[in-house]
User: Fold this.
Amino acid sequence: MRKLSVFMHVSVDGFTARPDGAIDWIQIGDEMFNYALERTEKSDAALYGRKTYEVMDAYWPTAADQPNASKHDIEHSTWYKAVNKYVVSETMRGKQLEKTKILSGNIFEQVKQLKQQEGQEIIMFGSPGLAGTLMNENLIDEYWLFINPVILGTGIPLFGKNGTEIKLQLVKSIPISGGVICLHYAI
Assistant:
């Protein structure tokens, strides 16, 4: 059975973005990119909510082609173009996209089926709304939370009001430059 891992930046007070969706407070750098590369090398599928997919798809397919492309841009762009992508969306239902399948309707059953397929890890970058929904159904196996040293006070919460208690086991905590702490949890 494949595992589904969430890779998410979070403020100290549990928000994944500002109320308008802005993520300008996230600290990124080479160490962070190395963790992203480590996860993508162990995955062959990506799961996104529609909004996150639209942001990713607007940038990553051509990121490596830019004259100032960084090492991370080249590596992640290569992975993004090769990986099978699954997008949870009712509004994109029926769209035919290369290496992308739209999941709509009973997404819980579809994600369960995806996890039962042969393959490597399924990784989900961002998509806090989808993460909250999948948490309620216990479909997430691991959390890679990057706690950024900022208190936003308001915004889009990761854990929201799901009403479900989920016990986590800390696998490791890793300090990263800039005051970011990576907390790797498993179910």
Observations:
- Helices lie at 30-41, 50-63, 71-82, 107-116, 128-136.
- The mean pLDDT is 90.
